[in-house]
Automatic annotation (TrEMBL):
Any GO BP annotation: oxaloacetate metabolic process
Molecular function, one GO term: omega-amidase activity
Annotated protein name in UniProt: CN hydrolase domain-containing protein
Gene Ontology CC terms: mitochondrion
Length: 299
């Protein structure tokens, strides 16, 4: 098992805001938030799930973009390029929330996050692997799979100044296995652009963030959309937890930026104090990080 390494202290920010029907406005909101976070000293900045479009499956195809590093044609808006430029302008590692993706070869749609380095280069992408299909009577029904296809790989991205992070999107946080695999392979943080809702957010948001952190003794960041005046009732409460499962910071439901200093010593310290990572009984159950290497983080 690889020991997670955070090479140096780093300030991480979650930029929480709500998306509207106006893509240009949404991208400008993201830009303003990332600039503010960078000016406050953040070097890893995270945006919410579906930040450039309404979180509404019926509208996904209308907002979806082909994700390509090649320059956009004049009538093709490109969130890819806006994010790449933003990372470069602000000198941050940018985990670009998620955006609706159209894959022209297959005609499929995905919910996809993009990661960029401070030079603007794409570092990796993650297509949501577990689609949000739930039905809680009279409270919350959602079926991403009506429109979206699931991604078929787990994603670990290297941020050269700091180490590696595991990426997931929102509902992915409910699944401990990918988080565990990423942690065993040495990530210092699990990062999930998200948009829970009033029903499941109240039930499970904080406990999921804390569980993934404590299970794996790594940092966890969930960056949510804020609660909009109408439409999808995003839970907000962007949260960063430490490797001991404690909440370092949590927003309310309004627009906000939350910050936490990730300490390069903290993971090792918590692992020495409560050494579950060395006490696993692989004679009784398998080490899933050894079983699953398919597509892992390698675009
Ligand atoms: O897991 C949940 O309760 C919410 C998930 C969600 O909102 C999403 O995946 O977009």
């Amino acid at each position: 098992m690889m020991c997670p390494v955070l090479k140096q202290h780093v300030k991480l920010a979650c930029v929480q805001f709500s998306s509207t029907a106006d893509k240009i406005f949404n991208v400008s909101e993201a830009r303003a938030g990332v600039i503010e976070a960078a000016n406050a000293g953040a070097r890893i900045v995270v945006l919410p799930e579906c930040f450039n479009a309404p979180y509404d499956m019926a509208l996904f195809p209308q907002y979806a973009e082909i994700l390509t590093p090649s320059p956009p044609s004049k009538d093709q808006s490109s969130t890819y390029h806006a994010l790449s430029t933003l990372a470069k302008d602000t000198n941050v590692y940018l985990i670009g929330g998620s955006i609706p993706e159209f894959e022209p070869l297959t005609g499929k749609y995905y919910n996809t996050t993009l990661a960029f380095g401070p030079d603007g280069a794409g570092l990796g992408s993650h297509r949501k692997t577990h689609l949000f299909d739930i039905d809680i009577e009279n409270k919350m029904t959602f079926r991403e799979s009506d429109v979206l296809s699931p991604g078929d790989k787990l994603t670990i991205v290297e941020l050269p100044d700091y180490g590696t992070v595991g990426l997931g999107i929102c509902y992915d946080v409910r699944f401990p296995e990918p988080a565990m695999i990423a942690a065993r392979l040495g990530v210092f943080a699990l990062i999930y652009p998200s948009a829970f809702n009033s029903t499941t957010g109240a039930l499970h948001w904080e406990v999921l963030a804390r569980s993934r952190a404590l299970d794996n003794q790594v940092y966890v960041a969930l960056c949510s959309q804020a609660l909009p005046p109408t439409g999808y009732p995003a839970w907000g409460h962007s949260i960063i937890t430490d490797p001991n499962g404690q909440v370092m910071v949590m927003a309310n439901r309004e627009k906000a930026i939350v910050y936490a200093e990730l300490d390069s010593e903290a993971i090792g310290q918590h692992r020495r104090q409560i050494p579950t990572s060395n006490q696993r009984r692989f004679d009784l159950y398998p080490d899933i990080s050894q079983l699953c290497t398919k597509g892992l983080g390698l675009d």
